[in-house]
Design a protein that fits this description.
alpha/beta; 13 helices; 2 domains; Alpha-Beta Plaits; Alkaline Phosphatase, subunit A; eight-stranded mixed beta sheet; 397 residues; single chain
Length: 397
Amino acid sequence: MAYQRVFVIVLDSVGTGQAGDAAKFDDVGADTLGHVGEYYQGRLQLPNLGKMGLSNLRNTPIEGVPVATPAIGDYGQMAEVSAGKDSMNGHWEMMGLPLAKQLNTFPDGFPQKLIKQIEDFSGRKVIVNKPYSGTQVIHDYGERQMKTGELIIYTSGDSVMQIAVHEEVIPVDELYKICQYARTLLNGPEYTVGRVIARPYVGPDREHFVRTANRHDFSLAPTGKTDLERLQEAGYDVIGIGKINDIFSGKGIDRGFHNESNADGMDHLDEVMQEDFTGFCFTNLVDFDAKYGHRRNPQGFGQALMELDQRLGHVLDELRPDDLLIITADHGNDPGFRGTDHTRENVPLLVYSPTMKEKNQSLGVRKTFADLGATILDNFNVQGENGTSFYHEIRND
């Protein structure tokens, strides 16, 4: 008997150790979960993730998270085959659309021609235009932006353009219009960029600036059919929580919920779990990445994991017999690593249902994130194109 509801929670950036191709990305030694555990020196308390097998799936347990004997579900890892290591690459690959070609990145800033087009459209000058930490750039340039009304444009190691403005200087709606225009310039063929991100902030001065929940990702539309669309076309409900709707440009999603925070995202998940539907609920929790990974803050990262773990206890209690829960991540962002960019890591794969027949088994290291989507399609008897299903290992009959 198939699971009627499948819930996937993506812990954005919670990698579990360097990927096999980490050297290509200069990420040898990255280990998000391992380094957070080391920072906490045994004080990282993750009982729910732990009993699902979070330390079981690793060669070395996370400090403070004992190996479960036995785990309540199945566990493993997934390796990424896509050319990039950002959220769009990771989520698209999970849904059967790996990206074989690297999107454009701009280690020296965006071409002046692009910048001039944005200036002409917006009527505002552009400053910075180089790779920068998102919090550091508003600390360094935010006060100037408040005085001049300029646009802070910056990038990172990923295929992304980010535009930061103070909400009281440039209204959010105006910022969104500028980002939408920039999106039209970056859809190819000359420049193909994964995301244009609106990054509004507030605060009186550089010591008190904070980025707001009005962030919005204007993503490249999927370049092919995703498993979300396949499920939707087969008549199943598809629900997105967090930045899922943005990442897929709304394609294949029936309903989307915007998250103010991880806690808000879990509130939305709790609401959806009370509904009667047949299909797939896809949740992204971005605070690990946006608030702590890029800022290289292992203390905050660990605290966010512990807070999530507490909320996860309620999710486990509320699962119906015909529900399936899968917890994973889209890439790494090791707060104990050099730099401020994402890190190329394998991601956790934790699978649980109250009625799973075989528990406490390793699902190994999956060769692609697309195995996740293939498994969900297999559960609903829908044909896909990429990935190898592990549904047979986790079935409930």
